[in-house]
Amino acid sequence: MDPVRNPYAPGAGQRPPELAGREKQIDAFDVVLERISRGRPERSVMLTGLRGVGKTVLLNKLRSAAIARKWGTGKIEARPGQDLRRPLSSALHMAVREVAPAHRDPEQVERFLGVLKSFALRATADKAMRERWQPGIDVPAVKGRADSGDIEIDLVELLLDAAELARDVGVGIAVFIDEMQDLAPEDVSAICGACHELSQGGAPLIVVGAGLPHLPAVLSASRSYSERLFAYHRIDRLDRESADRALTVPAGWEEVEFKQDALDALYEAADGYPYFVQAYGKVVWDQAAASPITTDDVRVASPLAEDELAVGFFGSRYERATPAEREYMRAMADVAGDDGQVATALIAKELDRKPASLSPARDGLIKKGLIYSAERGAIGFTVPHFGRYLRAQAD
């Protein structure tokens, strides 16, 4: 069929044409926005799940919902070793620019921007460097607010001021943080502390984070009350009805149909993971001769889709690992069976090594985002079917 008309979109963070199976999370967020707009306290939101389940897509969808209500929004993607101040300053600057035109007191807006500038400039320790680097905020810095150098104190002051600005306009502010597990521990602690202050005062500002399955453990390690501070949503694979809808609705727009046995084969191949649904759907469309798409089309296209995934989705991650880390992952794959979590003691036994000697490889893989540890003594792959991929490579 015509590849130009192909409706499927297997890309990192790229929204699929039909965002199926996420209605529960979208509806829950609409309630959060409505409650805050009525002056009622609400918790910030955390989305967790493996790679490829659509966390970034959902995060962007929630941001769109906030924008539709005239909220100020900003988004950042956390990176290991990155200081929080600069990207957060840019995100809040964007959010305030969206709110400012409706504000009746330009001087208050300008004062907040001065506070924001002071907060941003503290990211640079060297005084001479601070004088040369500017965060793109064209107002004088306001000294004595959000510039102590203590990220927790400064973040509380900054977000409370931002919330007050939004309250005066009758809207809210939402800060969206992707890959939140990669924030430094002190930044995680600061965000938890700030969210605690905001929720206690019913301030119209929330943080919406997304991260790997161990994000709740990261937050809990920072603040023991974090399990009560955030509303957690575990994002998982699609059920059968949603996966079928993700394929058939976009195809229907192009007047293309699927045979039922083709949908059966596609669900078995993709296992309900949204990225895989799009990846298989795209290749099957390109290989099919005509509508309706049949199980023979899926059979012919599946090896091509698997080859693409092996290079782009799995292989690119595998190449980032050192030889010792690859050995560790292969042992994980051999022990995992269904690709679930694996006891680290079993991996050591598989490799006939002492657990302590494997710590550098395990820690390196965690830092690279290839594995995660959601509970003590157990680890899992952050990418679905990664163990299956490694076992296939060994055959």
UniProtKB/TrEMBL annotation:
Alphabetized GO MF terms: ATP binding; electron transfer activity; heme binding; metal ion binding
Domain Cytochrome c: 167-333
Gene3D superfamilies: P-loop containing nucleotide triphosphate hydrolases (3.40.50.300)
Protein name (record): ATP-binding protein
Domain of life of the organism encoding this protein: Bacteria
Signal peptide: none
PROSITE patterns xref list: CYTC (PS51007)
Keyword Ligase found: no
Organism name: Tomitella fengzijianii
Pfam families (UniProt xref): AAA_16
Keywords annotated in UniProt: ATP-binding, Heme, Iron, Metal-binding, Nucleotide-binding
